[in-house]
From TrEMBL:
<dbReference type="InterPro" id="IPR001461">
    <property type="entry name" value="Aspartic_peptidase_A1"/>
</dbReference>
<dbReference type="GO" id="GO:0004190">
    <property type="term" value="F:aspartic-type endopeptidase activity"/>
</dbReference>
<protein>
    <recommendedName>
        <fullName>Peptidase A1 domain-containing protein</fullName>
    </recommendedName>
</protein>
<dbReference type="Pfam" id="PF14543">
    <property type="entry name" value="TAXi_N"/>
</dbReference>
<dbReference type="InterPro" id="IPR021109">
    <property type="entry name" value="Peptidase_aspartic_dom_sf"/>
</dbReference>
<keyword id="KW-0325">Glycoprotein</keyword>
<dbReference type="InterPro" id="IPR032799">
    <property type="entry name" value="TAXi_C"/>
</dbReference>
<dbReference type="Pfam" id="PF14541">
    <property type="entry name" value="TAXi_C"/>
</dbReference>
<feature type="active site">
    <location>
        <position position="118"/>
    </location>
</feature>
<dbReference type="InterPro" id="IPR033121">
    <property type="entry name" value="PEPTIDASE_A1"/>
</dbReference>
<feature type="active site">
    <location>
        <position position="338"/>
    </location>
</feature>
<dbReference type="InterPro" id="IPR034161">
    <property type="entry name" value="Pepsin-like_plant"/>
</dbReference>
<keyword id="KW-0732">Signal</keyword>
<feature type="domain" description="Peptidase A1">
    <location>
        <begin position="100"/>
        <end position="458"/>
    </location>
</feature>
<dbReference type="InterPro" id="IPR032861">
    <property type="entry name" value="TAXi_N"/>
</dbReference>
<keyword id="KW-0064">Aspartyl protease</keyword>
<feature type="signal peptide">
    <location>
        <begin position="1"/>
        <end position="18"/>
    </location>
</feature>
Length: 467
């Protein structure tokens, strides 16, 4: 079954519709605001259960895709494959998905869409209406890309090498050489997205305050979608690692890197931050001793996911006894950073060790059942968060340097109801990949330096205004 789910240098050259076109070595950066939106009127436990269902579905997709690609590589088969700008980014807690949104302007003239910022997706797509698509888009869609109204919309032919060899989940059928390249995404929760690939233009905000046209963006024009994954969004911004993702195309023009800072899921409605491509001129420079660097593992069987090396996990001052194979992507394990997964998901051997170590000092509190979590307890005003042992994920940096990730306690001890807290970590299958989701990433500034194959991170409040 096809599965995908809802996280490289040019000058400003000419002008289209009064806007410069990004096209050669960089001089500026570009940015997108990361948008946070409130959840509907549901109880915290209902919202968390919806997040868990989505995370489990996504975990299966990740495991299936990496397993298939690893098998193909081992067998020798083929596998699909100092300027800046920024976008505002914020939590989509209101949808129950636990993801983050950005606004992207697509087409000529530009049309604006709210997309999930997903480092685990290699396709940027929007709900779309186009005369050549099968059907013309769901009439109930509140917003859809009007491809016929964009002079820069150019369908990618199904006979092209790009369609045949590089685009994710493209269909083999080709009725005529000039017919559009079609895709059909199937999701483990039963959701689907079908449409055609096209070459388009995105309008972005540069660090100097100007707007510019970013050409050569591969987008999906989704004419048919079904399932709960797509009810509250216009599409997906593909930030995954592949030759055709938005991240790869944008980073290649802006210094080979992008960064983001994820606000707390439950922060006030107006809290937001930015997704930045190129040199980050928005966030304050850090103290040198606060920033850590971890090695990015970028290879064909892990695409489009960003994997990191992990040396172990400690709780309190104790390094837990977990097999090294759990952290080794070459031995059936490995760890990825994924903005599209909410909760941390650890392969079963690591999950058991972490759960036991975290729950032991909390055993004095009355236990309660709050499925799907294994350890939940009642707490009152006497509860002291300082007594909760600190969880540390020991990432490994270039040349073996230590790069400990110390998430705040609220990122792994979560509130699911009034007076009830749970250890908010899920079990993943073994053999299989462990995932550092966006809740464990929140309140940190992350920079994905694709060009140098490393990721840096440091604590941050992740809430600011553009300047």
């Amino acid at each position: 079954m096809r599965c995908e789910l809802l996280f490289p240098l040019f000058l400003l050259a000419c002008v289209i519709n009064g806007l410069p076109v990004v096209g050669a070595p960089p001089v500026l950066s570009m940015h997108f605001k990361l948008l946070r939106r409130h959840h509907r009127q549901r109880s915290p436990l209902q919202r968390v259960r919806e997040i868990v269902r989505n995370d489990h579905a996504r975990a299966k997709m990740i495991s299936d895709r990496i397993g298939w690609q690893r098998s193909a590589c081992v067998a020798g088969g083929s596998v699909p494959r100092t300027s800046s700008f920024a976008m505002p980014i914020s939590s989509a807690a209101f949808t129950g998905t636990g993801q983050y949104f950005v606004r992207l302007k697509v087409g000529t003239p530009a049309q604006t869409f709210l997309l999930v910022a997903d480092t685990g997706s290699d396709l940027t797509w929007m709900k779309c209406r186009y005369r050549a698509c099968r059907g013309c888009g769901d009439a109930q869609w509140r917003r859809a890309f009007r491809a016929d109204q964009s002079s820069s919309f150019s369908p990618i032919p199904c006979s092209s090498q790009l369609c045949k060899n590089s685009l994710p989940f493209s269909l083999a059928k080709c009725l005529a050489p000039t017919s559009p390249c079609e895709y059909d995404y199937g999701y483990t929760d039963g959701s689907t997205a079908r449409g055609i690939f096209a070459d388009e233009v995105a309008t972005v905000a540069l660090s100097g305050g100007q707007s510019a046209k970013l050409k050569g963006i591969v987008v999906g024009c989704t004419s048919s979608s079904a399932g709960s994954s797509f009810r509250s969004l216009d599409g997906v911004l593909g930030l995954g690692y592949s030759n055709t993702s938005f991240a790869a195309r944008a980073a290649s023009r802006f210094g080979g890197k992008f960064s983001y800072c994820l606000v707390d899921h439950l922060s006030p409605r107006n809290a937001s931050d930015y997704l930045v491509f190129g040199k980050d001129t928005i966030h304050r420079p850090s103290k040198p001793d606060r920033r850590r660097y971890a090695e990015l593992i970028l290879n064909s069987w892990l695409e489009p996911f960003y994997a990191v090396r992990v040396g172990g996990v400690s709780v309190g001052a104790e390094l837990l006894n977990i097999s090294e194979a759990v952290w080794d992507s070459g031995a059936g394990g490995g760890v990825i950073l994924d903005s599209g997964t909410s909760l941390a998901m650890l392969a079963e051997p690591a999950y058991r060790a972490v759960l036991a170590a975290l729950s032991a000092p909390l055993a004095r509190y009355p236990k309660v059942e709050a499925k799907p979590f294994e350890f939940c307890f009642k707490w009152d005003q006497s509860f002291d968060e300082a007594a909760v042992p600190r969880l540390v994920v020991h990432l490994v940096g270039p040349r073996g340097a230590a790069a400990p990730l110390r998430p705040p306690v609220k990122s792994y001890l979560i509130d699911v109801a009034d007076g009830v807290k749970c250890i908010g970590i899920l079990s993943a299958s073994w053999p299989g990949v462990s995932t550092i989701g966006n809740i464990l990433q929140q309140n940190h500034l992350w920079e994905f330096d694709i060009a140098n194959r490393r990721v840096s991170f440091e604590p941050s409040s992740c809430s600011r205004s553009l300047h």
